[in-house]
Amino acid sequence: MRQYLEIKAKHPDAILLFRVGDFYETFSEDAIATATILGITLTRRANGAASFVELAGFPYHALDTYLPKLVRAGKRVAICDQLEDPKQTKTLVKRGITELVTPGVSIHDNVLNHKENNFVAAIHFNKNLLGVSFLDISTGEFMVAEGPADYIDKLLTNFAPKEILIERSKRKLFNELFGVRCFVFELDDWVFTEDTARGRLIQHFETKNLKGFGIEQMTNAIIAAGTILHYLDVTQHNQLGHITTLSRIEEDKYVRLDKFTVRSLELLSTMNEGGKSLLDILDRTVSAMGARMLRRWLVFPLKNIDQINKRLSVVEYFFRDPELKDLLETQLSLIGDLERIISKVAVNRVSPREIVQLKVALTAIEPIKNAFLQSEEASLREIGEQLNPCTEIRDRIHREICLDPPVLIAKGNVINKGINNELDELREIAFSGKDYLVKLQQRESEITGIPSLKVAFNNVFGYYIEVRNTHKDKVPEGWIRKQTLVNAERYITQELKEYEEKILGAEEKILALETQLYNDLVASLVEYTTAIQQDAHLIAQIDCLLSYAKIAAENKYIRPVVEDSDAIDIRNGRHPVIEKQLPIGEKYIANDVMLDSNSQQIIIITGPNMAGKSALLRQTALITLMAQAGSFVPADSAQIGLVDKIFTRVGASDNISLGESTFMVEMNEAADILNNLSSRSLVLFDELGRGTSTYDGISIAWSIVEYIHEHPKARAKTLFATHYHELNEMEKSFKRIKNYNVSVKEIDNKVIFLRKLVRGGSEHSFGIHVAKMAGMPQSIVKRADDILKQLERDNRQQDISKPIADITEKREGYQLNFFQLDDPVLSQVRDEITSLDINNLTPMEALNKLNEIKKIVSGK
């Protein structure tokens, strides 16, 4: 326990898994937490005089089962192993921390999600400028950026780190700027100094300075990146050969999507249970690398027209060449997660089976390379030239490692025959020695005349000869008795001891030799880290573009025209997610949307609830985003003038935990949009101002639309869906504002939603019809209709209050007036009476019905 407490003191904030024999044990508070999270038994054990300690543990071979549960519960886990063989020491076994696993730093397959990166982030605060870095230790991706808090917030949303490192003194500031999110770990302030960070980075990359990475002057980003490397030292991750480069996230390369936009457009996840995100629809990737890259492509659409068109051209080429498509599908399915396997090679955690998978992947790359080199598409030829099948190391793996090796090197039979003469000789001794023992048993049985004699082995005596008591008198004098059992006796002979030493010695030497040969191969593989990481990156790109092509063929998408203009012109556009979730047989109603800076900069869309205004807004943003991410789009045609920012203010939500109302959240998001507009921005406002009173809402909505129209430099293209029909008046005063509505038909007092965008404003919103469709009681629907007519007639909100007050007064005094039927209670009584079938009503049923009506009136 003293040894445990010394090690625990070094990592007080982590759960310590303490290896004792065949178990990992936890003690005291760790045991209570572990038992709760894992659902295992909590016990107590005496620990010295009159004291007890809580204890919870599990078998060491179940680590892969239990470790992920602890990490996903947000726990840091220190793994303390036995550093020497207990058989080799007569004192306390030496133990030490071999790895500290945290939510953001892990290379364990069971902890990682194969379709997502597992980033740890570090943030350095410096007045108005912040530095941030992101590292995925499982893939070796290492990135940095600098900027104001809102830019860093956007990156945190898009990269979704599992753990964030901050200065201990900045916790309050972090919560104010970014809210409470994921697992935050505090480090001492001295770690966040430029000299410490710069020195650690230069030491790792073995360079004189950081100019080669383009970050020499980015002091805040350098501090954040150095902090992550320091954290890896603290968590005992010392083998970092796969972290070969540090890249800068350049804001001007990608479309700005703030966290509200990523959430409301449901790019990566859905706000409603059972719904689907855009990623769910577009992700038909074959490899885990491709799935991770596609996720990033969707939250970082490109702003470079050439790069966008390169992607689109490859998708079109795949579209036209089904043979190449089939070849790629087959070969990509063989590659597996090349990126994470080569990272495991670098940290010396790779299993023999993963080495064989690496060989299979490199073999699968060769046909892809050859096909691309012969391609007519320039981008594919370029990729073909960069792909490297690493034939030398691939052939060496094929030569040295068995086709179907065990998961662990300690199991043996990993190295092929013919690789090492000494290994082959030792194997011959080990296996022929065992054959010899079978022959020895037969020979001794014949010589002694003991038919039941058998040669066996145990860990105490080694090899022995067992003779049943009935034949005890036939045992030769030279045999040495070692053990007496109830029904038999066990003996050893000189010849048996000599063979035992030979066989057991050979088995130990075989394991040592196989381990040495395997480690030599892994060490050689490390030299190919950069080349294989490049292969993984290229294969992931191909996988994403192939996924685009498959989805485009299935869903009848077309190639958009992305150009350097200020117009967005979408003909018969469809919402990529909603169209896949419609009931069978129902067709999605496509719509045209045209926006530019000169004639139709702002479209005000009115129309009833449920008519499809929100879907129209979102589909415009999604089609634009998909085009700039290099994907085909759901439309008949689409001309996309390059967009640099997409803003959305969609849906109402509270942030009660921070004391912010729906309206406050709305205004925060709207302010963020208006303060960051540019001439190439695409802005979507849906029902802005509905969190406050009608006239406040109309005033705010009007002034915001006017601001966007009159902005001297930033004529942002805007779609503004609203219930405020008063905004339709703006078209008369502002030349670039146009009114549209989502049309409906009213037949026999019923509403049919046509979901078609047509020119002109609409007069009312049919909200009462929607309430009726939702199953609202008839009396409420009728009363709402009456109030609406009165409002429309008088256009004075205060007039409603008088009849309501009068009715309340009458209701409380039970002064019932059956002619005053705008009282909802009386309306309900009337409905009950009119629905009665008087001719078939029995006296008893009439009394019961009268009793029900009495309960309605009395409100009981």
Describe this structure in words.
The chain is an alpha/beta fold. It has 6 domains: 2-101, 3-Layer(aba) Sandwich (MutS, DNA mismatch repair protein, domain I); 120-249, Nucleotidyltransferase, domain 5 (2-Layer Sandwich); 284-390 and 528-555, MutS, DNA mismatch repair protein, Chain A, domain 3, CATH 1.10.1420; 421-510, MutS, DNA mismatch repair protein, Chain A, domain 3 (Orthogonal Bundle); 561-771, P-loop containing nucleotide triphosphate hydrolases (Rossmann fold), CATH 3.40.50; 777-858, no CATH class. It is built from 29 helices and 27 strands. It has a 7-stranded mixed β-sheet, with helices on both faces. Strands 3-4-2-1-5-6 form a 6-stranded mixed β-sheet, with helices on both faces. A 6-stranded mixed β-sheet has the order 11-10-7-8-9-12, sandwiched between helices. The longest helix is centred in the middle third of the chain and has 33 residues, at 494-526. It starts with a helix and ends with a helix.
